[in-house]
Amino acid sequence: MLDYGDLDLQKEEDEVEQFAMTSLGKLIFVDIHCRHPKSLSSDKPSVDTIDSLSLAFEDLFYMPFDIIENYSHTLRTLDISHNKFSRNLQFLGEFDNLTSLNLDHNNVDDYTVFPHMPKLQLLWLNHNNIEELYPFIKNLYESLPNLRYLCLMGNKAAPSYLNGGTFYDYLQYRLYVISWFPHLVHLDDRNVTTEQRQEARRLFKRPMLENLTEHAPLPECIKHLHNKITNMFSKPTLPCKLKPRGTNFIV
């Protein structure tokens, strides 16, 4: 015999699923794309309760104003993968509480600069157009100093066996990135070990003034002078045993 209680339960589960992170993009763009036959009703969760949003595969190259206005103060997780974002990421500065950002499969390149986002802890940048680590990683650190999880796979700047890199190329890349982010616990597909962090510090020593700024705030005028000096002299060099061959590597 058909159990109507089970049918009601299934209906509730389906309604909840509609508001999962991977479906929110379709709900938000219902008026534009007509992808969802149902409209939002009063008994659905309000904007204030939404902290995760996916706009993946929406063919976006800019963030719609309505999204920023309605969700910028509540979102903690944002997925804008598989779009066309490149150097126009300043809108991210409006998302005050964002801790997780997925930018996989976009057009982020060496000259993309992120806004200052001290709360961001997880950033996915797989399969973009990043070819050189310097100064991209330096700028990334200045904008996102508290990153704990970072993924750059599928970029030319992240050498691996999959894109023609050698083991030494991969090791150089990994240690260099680790040297910039003191809170990083996971890079690409594996955890950051204590040994890797120690070796990163040994190979890529940071200027003394820069180390001090991580623990004690300095006047803006001194920071400005320090940044100028760093830009002139801090491009990293490698020991001979790790010096890479070929292109797309730090020299």
TrEMBL record:
Lineage top rank: taxon: Eukaryota
Name used for this protein in its record: Leucine-rich melanocyte differentiation-associated protein-like isoform X1
Q: What is the lineage of its organism?
A: Eukaryota, Metazoa, Ecdysozoa, Arthropoda, Hexapoda
Q: Which gene encodes it?
A: LOC108626811
